[in-house]
Every structure is written in structure tokens, then in C-alpha cells.
Protein 1
Amino acid sequence: MASIARAHPNIALVKYWGKADDDLIIPVAGSMSMTLDKFATTTTVELTTGLDSFELNGTLADAKATQRTTVFLDLVRRLAADAGLETATASANVTSVNEGPTAAGMASSASGFAALAVAAADAYGLKLSTKDLSRLARRGSGSASRSLIDRFAVWHAGTSDETSFAEAIDAPEMAMVSVTVDAKAKKVSSREGMVATRDTSPYYQAWIDVTHKTLDEMIAACADDDFARVGQITETHAHRMHAVIQATEPPIRYLAPVSWQVFDEVAAMRDDGLEAYATADAGPNVVIICRPDDATAVAKRVAGFGAIETFAPGPGAHLLDAA
Ligand code: PMV
């Protein structure tokens, strides 16, 4: 019988950029995000014999993606072996359907590994808590740890596999408006970009230090239900992330000229009294946060820059009933 799980991407308001442990994917600092209500990944895991297989959007995945899936399934098999389950030696057919743009800075790896963690844990017969599923998803892609969580999540950096996981946090009511200026896969993956930043950016330590402070400020702003402060922190932190990345050698630049135009338009909105703030992950697409009632007005202002989607806070990764 197959296990099916559905997970949504998340967009960080306080960004994760840099690992303290590459193998365990322990980040250098914590982060905070909103889980989206669209662009889901639905993943089916069916145990089998022979080799693992991975099909994405109806096509067999390339060797690199298949290898990453097998490495992840090995973690699940190890947990199954530790739990004394017979499934520990089984291989798996993994089938994923991704409703959003893949690898263009719209967090497809987060929804992908969150869905895979939930479906694979179930298929192998593991009974894991949300915290343990978050820890497992983290091993696939750091940001996936946050997609386990409904609405808003804080990923505690931690210092070990046990202490690095995401959990829910209350945040002010908000919507997100994404501007997809380019739906193509990015040239430098987050994984490669993070290593290059750590190895060559002279601002890396400053980035780590400020991110710790920023997360504390964000948690305080959320506790105060202070939307404006949450927005200001988000936009400043996005600029800081792109600054530390741009200072790599050779330089990596994820934002395109049109991305900057969107940031400018968001600043112009604020001048006009429309309260909106912008952020961008490791790609050229920009995500705007605003109050839910302003989402339509915000979307109208940026419609000329790319494909627009509006998001509300969405559900954490969860199992679907098997067909
Ligand atoms: O989880 P990864 O390896 O795809 O890295 C995500 C990095 C950013 O999206 C740029 C920031 C974040 O916190 O999601």
C-alpha cells in the first residue's frame, strides 16, 4: 500500500543561509517562515524491491535528484532499522507532483522534502512526532524542516540533530504576494551558494551575528502582533542575505534587475500608504508581505513585473488518505 503526503513551500521572513554542520544540516542561526497555501507537492511512497526510483511531475528524475532521494531514504531506513522494523531493507518508488515552479527560489525543495519525510516515514512504518518529522525533513533540505508546521514556524538552529527543528509561532495576520519574474531553475543551488558564502564572503560572520539578533527581534515583533515591525525586519534581513551572498568570490547574484524594480515598487507602495514589504530567496522572484485586505491592491501594483500569486498561511505537511 502506498503512503501519500502533501506539503507546501514556506517563505522565510528571517532567512536560513549557512550551515554549521553540512551533513546533519544544522544551520548557523535560526529562521522564521510562513507556510504557503498553494504550490503544494504531493508525494507517494510505495515500498518495493530492487532500486529506489524517483519520478517528478511525470518524468523519471535525473541521476542527481534520484541520488538525493536515495540518500534521504537511507536515513528513513536507518530509523526503521533502529525501531526493529522489517521494512528497513525495502527500497521505494517515490512519485512527486509539484504544483509550483521547481528550483527557482520558490522553495520547491522545502515542500518536496517535507512531503517525502511524511510519506516515507509512514510507508516504512515509523510513528514520528511533528518535531521528529521536522528533524527528518531538515536532513533533506534545511528549509523543509519548517514546512512541517502550520502557518508560521520558527526553526531553532540547535546544536545537534536532536535540538535542530521547527515549531509553530503566532504571527500577525498577513498575506503574501509572489512575483515570479523568472520560472527557470536557478544557476547556483542554495547548497552551493551557502558553501561559497561561508568560504569566500568577508561578511559571513557579521551575517551570522545579525541573524541571531534578527530572529530575537522577529519573535518579539510577533509576540507584539506588530505587522509593520515584522515587515521592516523581513525586508532588511532579505537585503542583508543578498549582500552577504553578493560578496562571494566569484560573485553570486540571485536577484535580477526586474527583482530590484519590484523592491522599488514596494517602497513606492509604502510612500502611497499601502503597507507592504518585500523579500526574496535564492532566486530572482520576489515575495511581498502585506495585510490580507491589501493583497488585491498590492497584486495590481506589481502585475506588470511577472506572474502573480497570492497566498494565505497554509497547512503543515500531512498525510492524505491512500487512494
Ligand atoms: O533549504 P534550502 O537548502 O533550499 O535553503 C533555503 C535558503 C533560502 O530559501 C534562501 C532561505 C530560507 O530560509 O528559506
Note: The CA atoms of residues 41 and 226 lie 31 Å apart.
Protein 2
Amino acid sequence: MKDFRQRELVERARLVIPNGMYGHESVASLPAGFPQFFSRADGASIWDADGNKFVDLMCAYGPNLLGYGNAGVEWAAERQRALGDTSTGPSEIMVKLAEDFVAMIDHADWAMFCKNGTDATSMAMVTARAYRGRRKILLARGAYHGAAPWNTPGLAGIVAEDRAHVIYFDYNDLNSLADAIRGHEGDIAGIFATPFRHEAFANQTEPSLEYAQGVRRVCDELDALLVVDEVRAGFRLSRDCTWSLLGVRPDLSCWGKVLGNGYPISALLGAEKARIAAGSIYATGSFWFSAVPMAAAVETLRQVRETDYLERLTDMALRFRAGVAVQAATYGFGVMQTGPAQMTQILFEDDADLRRGFHWVREALEGGLYLHPWHNMFFCSAMTEADLEVSLTATDRAFAALKAVGGKLPAQDNAAILTRIARMAKSAA
Ligand code: PMP
């Protein structure tokens, strides 16, 4: 794999960007050789700075739902760009977007737009507190809801007071939720839930029906708001809120990532009973009203409603999962593929230091497939039969390479990851 340009960019970045890169798109915690910089994206593929092409099972960590450069979305954005984007006031497209979105999502009666998922979850948190003037926010231990002081997993620069009114409980465990609430019954503002348990470094788990319904019941009893954080899972499992599949309606839902198919826009949706609270909070941003991402979102939502994108990406995801399962069995590896296939997490059994996983994804990368060794992956509806074939050929090659080295896998360059696992385990405790 060519990496001449990559090396040069990494070297230049090191001098002018702290650590050379930051956040979830830093490759510091990926196997050596994973490209940091990219030059192009189209359909289900990405090209790195040296022009190496990969079928991309990360989809930009979610946003790519309909394919990079989706013609309809690009056309809608282009048309709006010719008219204007960031201006002194919002475009009329904002009203259309709110109408369309609210009409699609069963629990929603109103919408507010922002940029990142963290904006949406933070607005949900503040709205929940404003609703009855209470303080306590309940979060499932280990769940990711963003990079703000009240929820970031990284604790540098965060003080205890930032979390003074955040209480943690265990996902899928109503007893743990009851314990967390005990003694604070009159002060519970809201309970956050991700649609399923999709944490990094761990197998994913689905919520039980009893749990999802139980959280709803507890919120009703306490007159607290149930917030479902759809930022990661939104529209990959359902055309409505994911918990609509379980018959549970949240009071607030947070959306981001896929909403503009890659254009920067996120949203907080809410039920009637939370409207006054949402209208009372101070929430704004210089770019929150930009019209181009809203035009992209209107078209993304149209395709969600009117095309078979969901069935197509689900079909590809299930076939990929089945193919990997057969290969793993053939080569004799214990592989855990957990969570919904559309957002699969793949971990090796007996691989606490991710040695096998690192080797496997590194080999797959050489074969033209971009996988992740410890974060859930994402499918988009632009994946073609040829992309699927490239993907399964790459995973087969990777299993063969893993088999060839047998038990003699060297300790990898994953010290940074292991430190991070330890840090995250501590911060979640
Ligand atoms: N909530 C969930 C469930 C997420 O997965 C993420 C991002 N991975 C966020 C919130 C934060 O979104 P953003 O990175 O756009 O701020």
C-alpha cells in the first residue's frame, strides 16, 4: 500500500495539530498503517491520501447512510447553495425540514436543529432539567452521549462538579435503575437511553422489551423525560425511532450523523409535553440555521421515507455477517459479531489485548476493506454486489493471514488502546 503522501501529511500535522489529530477520527488507537488522511469518498468507498481505495464499513462513523455523494442529496444541497447558506436568518427550508421530520417520527411534535450529536444530547439534557426544574440526569454506565463536560468519557479538564447531578446505572437492568433513583425521586429530570447497547471495546446487546418499557414507566411515574439518543443508530434499523420497534415512545429524541447524509446537521425532537421546556432554554449557534445542510436533510428524509434504502443496507449487512461467520468457522476462529448486523461489532474471542482483531483488520485493509477493531461499524445503502465481494474476499484473506501466523502473533503496537480501555473503564466506574 502506498503511503508516501500519508507520511508527509502526518508529519506536517504533528507540528500544527495537538498529537497530530484528536477525537474519534484519530488513528492513534488503530493498528499501525491505518491511513489518517483521505482524499475522496464515493458510494460505499473511500480513498486515502495516496489514492488507496477501500470499501468503507465505518461510513464516517455513521453519517454516510445513502452513499457518499448521493446524487439526490448533492443536488438538493447544490440547489440551496446557489440561493444561500449561512445568513442573517434561517431559510424557509427549516420549516419544511421540521414539518417533514415531525411527520415521520411518531413521538415528535416539534423539532430544533443544531450541528453535532453532542449539541442535541446537551439540549435534551438542559430541556429535561427545565421541564420540571429538576437536576438529576440518569445515564447508563459506559454509554456514549457526546463530548461535553457532562458526558465525555475523557476526563482531562473535567471536574467533579460537571457531573455532580449525573447518576449512572447499568443498561438493561431495572434494579440498577431503581437503585440509582432511590433517594432522588423528586429531583429526577431525565433518563437517557441509547436504542441498544453500542459501546466501544465490548459486545453489543439489545435491550429487553421489559427494560425499554420499564424505563418508560419509571419516567411516567416520576414525571421525568425519557430521552432516546438516536445519534448513532438513527434510521439504520427503523424509519422511526428505534424503540418504536419495541412500542416505546420517548419524550425527546436526539438525532445527528445520518440526518444530512454527511452534511453537518443534528436535531432534538420532542413530544408536546416538552415543548414549553424546550422553548425556554437558551440554545443557539452561528451555524445552526445554515440552509444547505437543511436542504440535504430534507432530501435524506425523503429517501428514508420513499426508497428501499433500509432493506438494501440490511440485506448487505446480513450477507456480510453470514459470510464472516462461515469464514471464521472454516479457519477455526471464535468471532463474536454482536448487535444489529447493520451496525455490527466484530471482536475475537480470547483477545483481551485485541491482538488478533488488530491483525485481522490490518490484513483486511491490505485487501481493500476498511474495518474497525473495537468500534461498531455501519452499512450504507450504496454498497454494491461488487463491494460485498471485495469485502468478503478481504476478510477471507485476513482470516487466512491470521491462521498463517498461528499462535505466534506478536504483541502489537496497541499499548495506546489498552491504556485507553483502562481509562474508559475507570471513567465509567
Ligand atoms: N450520542 C451517540 C449515541 C453517539 O454515538 C455520538 C457520536 N458517536 C454522539 C451522541 C455525539 O455525536 P457527535 O460526535 O456528532 O457530537
Note: The chain has a mean pLDDT of 96.
